[in-house]
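Protocol step 6 of 9: fold each sequence in the batch and record its structure tokens directly after the sequence line. For illustration, a two-sequence batch is reproduced in full.

Sequence one:
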Amino acid sequence: MASLTSIATPYRSSSYPSSSQALRVKLTGNTLFSAGVRSSATSSSLLTIRSAATKPDKPAADVDWRQKRELLLEKRVRGVDVKEALRLQKENNFVILDVRPEAEYKEGHPPGAINVEMYRLIREWTPWDIARRLGFAFFGIFSGTEENPEFIQSVEAKLDKEAKIIVACSSAGTMKPTQNLPEGQQSRSLIAAYVLVLNGYKNVFHLEGGIYTWSKEGLPIESEED
């Protein structure tokens, strides 16, 4: 039976090798498995996939949550519940920035919300991207995602640095401590808020409970058809 010594895995900083590093998968025995892909081999072999491009030293998702949370608190990013968010949108010209995938946004979103994906499907087919696809497939995920490299540029094209923004995703995390989560819990929207404040946005809020709670509370939802 094959044995895996290392493999590309999603969401971990160690899964982002630099351009000079290689992703190495060692296999032994008569059957070769590589992230769920099966082929035959007659002897022990070593599969090496080299990155075709330099990756960021540490994508926003891989920065330690405690470090992100400290900056969010320092920049006075606070959570607002869905009813307060609706009031701020109507009375104080706040913009809801929906960072979910475009397909989810089109299925239903708060009226007036702007969509910029924080994560998107992996698009390229470089050796590095193929390795990441294999890593996702190993865990049964066949639609692997990556941090959107155009996120901040897309936001800047729609909202200036003085804009009052409420960042939202599906169910959201929280910066509020609980007994089980003394440092809260990160989410796509909090990662997006972190990227925004890093890039000079000054009025950033976070939607507690996300679009799920917004819909559950019976607040206005609109959808878009292709």
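Sequence two, same batch, same settings:
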Amino acid sequence: MDWGNVTAEDLIDALREVDWSSPPRPLPEFFSRFTVPRSYAKWNSRLKCNLYYYRTNYFIMIVVILCLGFLRRPVAILGAILTALSIAFLNDSFTGTFSEKVTRTVRQFSPHLAAKMRPPLTPVIRGRPLAKRTIHICGRPRWVFVFIFSSVSFILWYVSCGLLTICWALAIALLATILHASFRTPNLKARLNTFREEFRAVWRNYSEL
């Protein structure tokens, strides 16, 4: 796969749709081999490849750096966790898994309430939905939870006076992510994973025909 031809929009769409439930890559592999890219095209391709392949590692690293910046401010740590959840809710796979687990837990105590948490059915004619499928969390549109979690996290940051701290911590986390993705040499596993994801995408498009 030529990652140089992949646009930023394509990469964001892929990260939004891909399954994030897989465990992070092992640390020996994550910090294995680093080289300087020989050209801008090589750097651009490597950056996109590593951002996609080590997505779970980068997400965990950003959360850890944010939490380290708020060791003396527990309220701000809670705000960072809510922010991480609001970002994670933008991924379709994580949202579906989270909603299913919450509904399953509620069903053990209140089956009637769990029935109300089911997402509405999308009308289908000849195997095709009439409208674009909307992602729901516990029976409500996803944007409702993203808005609530983001608003609460902002309030917690404001109350804890941690807005400046979060800016510095986020800048350091993003810088560390970009530096690692720029100098980490893509290995054979990353290339094989790319081919597997391509096959899944082609097979999904074929099955929708």
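Proceed to step 7 once all outputs are recorded. Observation for sequence two: The first strand starts at residue 124 and ends at 125.
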